[in-house]
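Human: If only I could read backbone structure tokens as easily as an amino acid sequence. Take your time, and here it is.
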Amino acid sequence: YILIFVCKMLLLLYMYVRWCLSYHNTVILHNQGSLKICSKSIIFEPDDQNEPILKIPLKDCKRIEALEENEMALSDFLYGNAVSPYRYLRGERIVIFQLDIPKKTEDVVQTLLQLHRASCLDKLGDQTAMVCIHKHTRTIQLLKYAFLFVYSFQCVSESPHMDCEAEMITPLVTNPGHVCITDDNLYFQPLNSYPDSVVQIGLRSIRRIYKRRHGLRPLGLEVFCTENDLCSDIYLKFYNTKDRDELYYYIATFLENHITEQTAESYMLLWQRGHISNYQYLLHLNNLADRSVNDLSQYPVFPWVIDDYSSPQLDLLNPASFRDLSKPVGALNTERLERLLDRYRDMPEPRFMYGSHYSSPGYVLFYLVRVAPEHMLCLQNGRYDHADRMFNSVGETWKNCLEGGTDFKELIPEFYGTDCSFLKNMLNLNLGRRQGGGQVGDVELPPWASDADDFLQKMRAALESQHVSEHLHEWIDLIFGYKQKGSEAVAAHNVFHPLTYEGGIDCDSIEDPDQKIAMLTQILEFGQTPRQLFTTPHPQRITPHFHNISSGTSNSTSMESFEDLTEESKKLAWSNMNRLTAQSNHKIHKEAVTGIAVTSNGASVFTTSQDSTLKMFSKESSALQRSVSFSNMALSSCVMLPEDKTVVCSSWDNNLYFYSIAYGRRQDTLMGHDDAVSQICWRDNQLYTASWDSTVKVWKCMAADISSNKRTQFEPLAELEHEAGVNTIAISPAGTLLASGTKEGTLSVWDLASFSMLHQLSCHSGKIHQVAFSPDSRNILSVGEDSCLKVTDVQTGMLLSTIHAEDEQRCFCWDGNVVLSGGQSGSLLVWDLLSSKVIHSIPAHSGPITCIWMNEQCSSVITGGEDKQIMFWKHQY
């Protein structure tokens, strides 16, 4: 009996001590704040920023219960290890939450119990908030449960077009909710009412909208209400592509008449001609390639451009100061590259050269930890990285990128911006101590930078320098262009893990949820290769080269001054092309006019026509002076030879006719082709003829004086074969290249030194009417039956720009930026290629305009049309 009594007393004592300990380990939260119930934990965020965030893992909870009507208790979890900004609780402790919604406390507890029991939800991660209870909120919002969406429409007359579930994407967080679009506004209602209960964007305020990849899947949509590529107004991720596309096309249709959509080709043309900076162009390319500051796995990527981070002075005129932009970071160090290639050769398929990417969430936060510490803590489970692995020094980081075995990262836009805060520890963060004992603080800058602002200014100067401008296209080929994938990527040593490329794996086809989540996590954390924007070599930027006039003789100085004056007069003429005014019009043919040739003094105008005649018109007397018939078939074109003594005409009867102006008769006939001759050109004593027999022939004139009253001897030099009839040709201003356009829409570029083809591309969907080189010979403009104007880069053969006209354009003149064209409507159109718009329309002929001529000073224009007329035009200043 005594033993039993002692045991009972000991038991009572134990229970009393246990009750006392429990009481003293009870925590009652009196701080105002928000309680967020997630899939794997409960997070309490106090309104007082000096108080730490309280995070309680659900897996450690053994008892969850409702106490009074407004209290909820969690007990039997481990306590210890507080790391700002999160306090992880470990040990036996009770936390009591006093809710502002007492009638719903039981519902919250039941939800917690369901989450606690649902082991499958353990796989989701803490990024998806399931319940959010705010101190000012009187409703509970539950994912996968009943949810009442009440949108605060701006106007009672608004009519909803569609609504669906979606997520708002911000760095490292996906916020689920509901999206709705009306005829005036776009609404997004987050489940947790953060950052607002409803996000509202007026459709008329939207400037741009882009489809996005998220996790390499076509589910994203980003909306911009400003021209700032680094700041969007909302980034949405949908649960299926159909909903995303429906919303996109609704907004795009609404915006069609309000904004102009820009393409990679249009931005390229702006950049190539110096209308936008290197920095702006790279931002545009990143934007078009699905890179966004809201998605750290696809953050905008910028290149390292400087190689010298140790000299006291930075010499931007010395090429040795710059990094080789033709190689990826991993290929800059030859010894390291050899080791990587040895591993690559021994690797089974699928093979890759680099085990890490040049852009990933970890690398982005490596640079931005001083301004976004919460993101790094979120990414690394509440801890900063080791102090020696932090972004401590620009020079050390570049050195590690050159020598490290797994470090191939590029830079981010902030290195070329104006905000230097990411280089300074302005928040006084405790980022740890390095092995040498030094505290991690501000980033150590190169010796040539006096401070952070000076560092960014010199980085911007380097990015916009002439050396980088001349080589930036090589880096674009690696990141956004044709060297991103395939055999070109292998040859350029630019091959990354297959999971970083779009189409590398179809996550939707994976049925195992664990494997699917693991794959998505790997894609999001490892980094993603940008969407490929170019499949052919990117053209080089046109950079100005300045000449030292004072170093030449006075004669050369005067000649250059005269050339400068001529160029200024040309610029003035083209800038006033919308002031072109008709001087006179004359009906001199019985059929459509096909060609115009003018003497150097502009006094005599020669025209050919489908009525098979060549006619000479005097501009001074406004009278027809001569009419010559060579054949019973149409004449297709004409050209004036040097010294204004001979006109050459091409005919549909396969022949070429030489007309002597001095003797007033046909001087010679050349039987040149097996089908109609469509166009002729003359350059440097050589005649170029295009024919519908699918050839272009080059003829060498053997006569010393072609204007003499003797038969002219021509020796064939070359025959350029095509796959279809050639309808038009043009010679470059330097006389080194020839462009040809066929009846099937193929554009070809030929080297006249070797008579070899440089490029060939299917440019138009129908006959090409005319091609012409730009004055600098860098681009070719073509017009065709498909009513398109297309600009092609001569160096790469890449199509730079496509402009769709309302009607078919038949002929044109251009200065590289502005186009004067004539088409089916009979009007002359003035185009601005940079904006891809018609800036002026000038009524002209009563039928289609078939040919156009412009003098060297660009001050006088003559047009011919199917209305059988020629018209004379002048600028009115």
Remarks:
- Residues 21-28, 76-93, 119-151, 545-565 have pLDDT under 50 and may be disordered.
- Residues 2-24 form the longest helix (23 residues).
- The chain is about 20% helix and 30% strand.
